[in-house]
Amino acid sequence: MDNDKRRFLRLMGISTGLLAGSSLFGGMSSILKLGTKFNGDALASQGMEYGKFASDPKALKANRWAIAIDLRKFKTHDDYKRCIDACDNIHNIPVIPNNQEIKWIWEENYENAFPEQQNKYLEEELKDKPVLLLCNQCEYPPCVRVCPTGATFKRPDGIVMMDYHRCIGCRYCMAGCPYGSRSFNFQDPRPFIKHIDPEYPTRTKGVVEKCDFCIERLDKGLPPACVEASKGSIIFGDLSDTNSDIRKVLSNNFTVRRKPELGTQPNVFYII
Amino acid sequence: MIEKVFYGSKKYWAWVIFLIVLLGTCFHFYLMQFNEGLKITGLSRNVSWGLYIAQFTYLVGVAASAVMLVIPYYLHHYKAFSKMIILGEFMAIAAVTMCMLFIFVDLGQPTRVLNVLLYPQPHSIMFWDMTVLAGYLGLNLIIGWTTLEAERKNATPPSWVRPLIYLSVAWAISIHTVTAFLYAGLPGRPFWMSAIMAARFLASAFCAGPAILLLLVFLIQKVSKYAVGEEAVNALAKIITYAMSANVFFMLLEVFTAFYSHIPDEMNSFKYLYYGIDGQHALVPFMWTSAGLGLLSLALLIPPSLRNNKKLLPFALAALVMSTWIDKGLGLIVAGFIPNPFDKITEYLPTFPEIMIAVGVYTIGVFILTILWKVAISVKEKSTT
Q1: Which of A168, A176, A188 comes nearest B115 by C-beta?
Q2: Confidence check: pLDDT of A30 > 50
Q3: Residue A271 in 3-state DSSP?
Q4: Residue A66: which H helix or E strand, with range?
Q5: B113 touches chain A (CB under 8 A)
Q6: Which of B5, B13, B197, B334 has the maximal Cβ count within 10 Å?
Q7: Does B37 reach chain A within 8 Å, measured CB to CB?
Q8: Is the pLDDT of residue A132 over 50?
Q9: Tally: H helices and E strands in chain B
Q10: Measured between alpha carbons, how far apart are the two ends of chain A, in Å?
Q11: Residue A245, SS3?
């Protein structure tokens, strides 16, 4: 190769490098600019109010959310159905007619809900008494421990959440959950939803889902849907607040939790 | 060295083309699963892992078993394994690749698989399993390729390979230990929550893996002039016998703890597997077949006169592989979910598309194995003549 050619190539190389560098710099600076757009000062300068996007002042806040289900008050089939339907309807829960179903809150017989309480001579009334089951929002959730992507995580207020956009569908959380509280979308759920509520996202195939104590309602200052529909049979509140309804109910009644021996510290209590 | 892949007999090419056609057929079923979701499998809300994860578990063992050649050859300088060691290392590469693919085909959202790297969660055992499997794949690729290359050049392998070989011994143990931890640390699955799980996994791996290797070696000796030597075969058969005995022993320890303690949670999965519960017994015929074949393999392997009988050995090994495959590649994972947390039984059997996808992953494994062994055997044949 002669000298001219070599010099030409070198020049080309340098100028390409410079070009790439400057465009990279340009890209970076535009990203940084984009960043400033979102801070408060920039909003103010555009005539928008500071704090306009802050959370609703009515939003319910707690250090440890929990519920107590007073099974004594569940008498008719309708008492259960009301709570389940309230949840199913607002969360776009599909009705899938086989064992690949989706369940957030459902009924199970007493002996299936508390299988470790084996008792042949169980009180007649309890034998066929259904128990409402849902995610226990554990203090030490095994599902969160095993999740390889952080798609399921615990919020500071104790609610165990799902990020449907990060979940890779490995179903390790389903193996990890000792309460069978999790469901997997084996298929696109949308064709199985009777009436899609546009207020709440539907899920896609291939992700896991479960009850999340209606975080979307808490943010608006409303209790979970099942609590509202139960008309006082399900008590909801903050365990860290000694004056809360739930603390009063727990100190005045004998309550049980599912599989306490596993040390997950469930935050769903039952009054039998 | 890789050019050896392109020179082969008509039989070799026919085999390669057969594998590609089979893979294409199976890929069709994967596309079906990709489009429709895992609903095409026999999995359910209650039995949420099945054939794929069980194959993954089994193949981690096959991969780890290369160490049964590495320890005698590199740590004890047992030269009889010199013609087999590379085959074991390369089989480990094919097995680890299949492991990763089985995890991949099991995912509900396979396009998001890199989230495992983007958001690493060190508290998840799956993160560590991914790490050790990727590391083991790398180690075997480097070690296998470098030592083979050295042999081709009639040189001694570079000295930096040695520390990697020692590392690979510990690493092989780690991959199957971590895989056992995936299951053994789950609070709500009493069938899996056993401290002996990792030991049991290693024992079954160290018999099943070398047994598969020997069967493949017999096949190679039929279709090519390559021979590993009788001493190597006898020595490996002895290792297999010890490992299988340990495997059966560990399994019986589990049975004792479950049934003598008489704790229902501990007994239920065993009862389901071997007797069925409430008339649900889909896996019972498989499990008794496994038990029968396992005992048969021991009966044919323990007496030296039978073990060294080259006509009987392939049958003994095939019985052993079938037995351990049913036990670990079917029963172990499924029974962990039965009964479910509500003490109810949901049965599981894989569907046809699910089986075809599994066959597809195995086809990729066999393809990789064919290519790697072709290179290894071509190099070895040249260096000995």
Answers
A1: A168
A2: no
A3: strand
A4: strand A65-70
A5: yes
A6: B334
A7: yes
A8: yes
A9: 15, 0
A10: 91
A11: helix
Amino acid occupying residue B246: A
| CB within 8 Å of A13: residues ≥ 6 apart | none
Residue with tokens 């470098």: B146
Q: Which residues of B touch A103 (CB under 8 A)?
A: 45
Question: Counting Cβ atoms within 10 Å, is residue A63 exposed (0-12), middle (13-18) or buried (19+)?
Answer: exposed
pLDDT tier for residue A41 given thresholds of 50, 70 and 90: low
ipTM summary value? 0.92
Cross-chain CB nearest to A166 (options B115, B182, B189)? B115
**Residue A161 structure tokens:** 């959440």
- Compute the distance between CA of residue A110 and CA of residue A100 in angstroms, rounded to an integer: 23
Contact B107 A115 (CB under 8 A): no
Give the nearest partner residue to B124 out of A146, A185, A263, using CB atoms: A146
Query: Which chain A residues contact residue B335 at CB under 8 A?
Result: none
CB contact under 8 A, A168 and B112: yes
Residue A28 has pLDDT above 60, yes or no: no
- Among B35, B56, B112, most A C-beta atoms within 10 A, so best to mutate, is B112
Q: Do B125 and A175 touch (CB under 8 A)?
A: no
Q: What is the pLDDT of residues B4-43, one digit of tens each?
A: 888 888 889 999 999 999 999 999 999 999 999 999 999 9
> How many Cα atoms sit within 13 Å of B29 on the Cβ side?
19
Is any Cβ of chain A less than 8 angstroms from the Cβ of B108?
yes
Per-residue pLDDT reduced to its tens digit, A142-190: 999 999 999 999 999 999 999 999 999 999 999 999 999 999 999 999 9
Q: Which residues contact B240 (CB under 8 A, 6 or more apart)?
A: B206, B207, B210, B211, B214, B301, B317, B320
Do residues B373 and B92 lie in contact, with contact meaning Cβ atoms separated by under 8 Å?
no
Alpha-carbon distance of B128 to A210, in angstroms, equals: 26
User: Which of B44, B121, B340 minimises the CB distance to A147?
Assistant: B121
Contact B188 A176 (CB under 8 A): yes
Distance from C-alpha of B264 to C-alpha of B267, rounded to nearest angstrom: 5
- CB-CB contact of B318 with B309 (8 Å): no
Alpha-carbon radius of gyration of chain A: 26
Q: What is the pTM of this model?
A: 0.89
With b meaning 16 or more CB within 10 Å and e meaning fewer, what string describes A202-227? bbbbbbbbbbbbbeebbeeeebbbbb
